[in-house]
Amino acid sequence: MYKLKSNQTKGEEIHVKEFVSWLTSKVLYGMGKAATFTAPLLFQSKLLCCSLLYLFTTLFVALYHSLSPTKCLFRSSPFDPIQSPLFLYPPSYGEHKYSLPTYRSSCSSPVYFSDYWLVIKEIQDLCDNSTLGSGVLRYMQGKSNSFGGNFSTQKRFSYLDHGNNDNWEVPCGFFKRFPISNSDWIAMESCNGIVVVSAIFNDHDKIRQPRGLGSKTLGSVCFFMFIDEATLKGLDYHQLISRKSQEYKIGAWRIVKVSTKNMYENPAMNGVIPKHLVHRLFPNSKFSIWIDAKLQLMVDPLLLIHALVVKENVDIAISKHPYFVHTMEEAMATARWKKWWDIGALQMQMETYCENGLQPWTPNKLPYPSDVPDTALILRKHGASSNLFSCFLFNELEAFNPRDQLAFAYVRDHMSPKLKLNMFEVEVFEQVALEYRHNLKRVANSIVSEGKRTKRASHDLFVNGSKCHKYLLGMWGESH
């Protein structure tokens, strides 16, 4: 018990007793009511706590996804891209509807971009001083009812072994005049550096502007979009261009109208001409990028060509297919998902390739990591090997169908000289370009032809008697 010391007064004793009483009450309160400790008001509401948890989780996920696209694309130094929109679309056009999300969160082979200004100088020096171009090849000339000449199988295959015979004329389309205006021809021939090419036939896609362009890119890179009459009507309906104009331009793209009256019946086959014969349409260009109209380019084309083609010292850069490695896998998917209407013709195509030496992919084919590319984005250095490959591939597409992934490996593996190829990872492709769905609705006043009814094969695909039986056993690991 507390006792008063000799030098303390009665008043001091009273104050001490009051303090002890107060302290005792607090101790007793803590002993008896510790379980009912009152939390701060901020955390008394369960709803508020849940809301805060959701908020911080959402912010973390958003921050992660906003930073994850840079995992595959690295710049050694920043540059100032063009900030203002290249073109203002009317709301009715809906150029950014129906984008497809990507779900890859990792990157096994990131791409490192060099300094933008150094890239401009190096590309310009290559274009000014190199012997790149299509002048090293001689192309077969003549007249035919078909744009590609409609050569037989053995005739087409006989040209694959070109070797170093520069005097050998190569069939490479243009057995008919490519029906565009003279002013467009002049503009295409004057493009002597990098050209970016796309096409929309049968009003199948939207025109989307490239993003991430450096301040000097539009002055040194050409952008050409090939369209047909059906697409032109759709653009006129949305008042993007006037049909009365002699030349058309939408943002970065110069629009080239192709009269398809005497061309291929299939619009996709007409689109194959600018896709694979770009070196003939732009004879003075040194590099090219083909981009399907379903894609929007998200990276400056100068940086892409430099990082994926020039630094890698290759003829062509193209993405691996996200799912398939073997040609036959793509053929079966084409038939299964009705990507081409004549299933019997698909079977005949694959039987032809198997009979003439098509093999499934194995490590023996390295440095080629796959037989199936994603051809929606193709980067080329215009030289003998890449030009020959493009010609040979086009000949196969005219002979069979415009599904270029089916002929890709056969032409690549059997042609000479060999192709230097950079097949980059899918996650890089997904950061380089943003993918959209094709037009889902019929645009008013546009001409949209009805698709052909699927023609079934006469019997089951690739049964035991098939010329592809050995290929399938090898693909499935049952060849031994």
Automatic annotation (TrEMBL):
**Which positions, given as ranges, span the membrane?**
47-67
Q: Which domain of life is it from?
A: Eukaryota
* Listed Pfam families: TOD1_MUCI70
Q: Which residues form the TOD1/MUCI70 glycosyltransferase-like domain?
A: 143-438
Q: Does the keyword Transmembrane apply?
A: yes
Q: Which organism is it from?
A: Cephalotus follicularis (Albany pitcher plant)
The name of this protein is DUF616 domain-containing protein
- What keywords were assigned to this record? Membrane, Transmembrane, Transmembrane helix
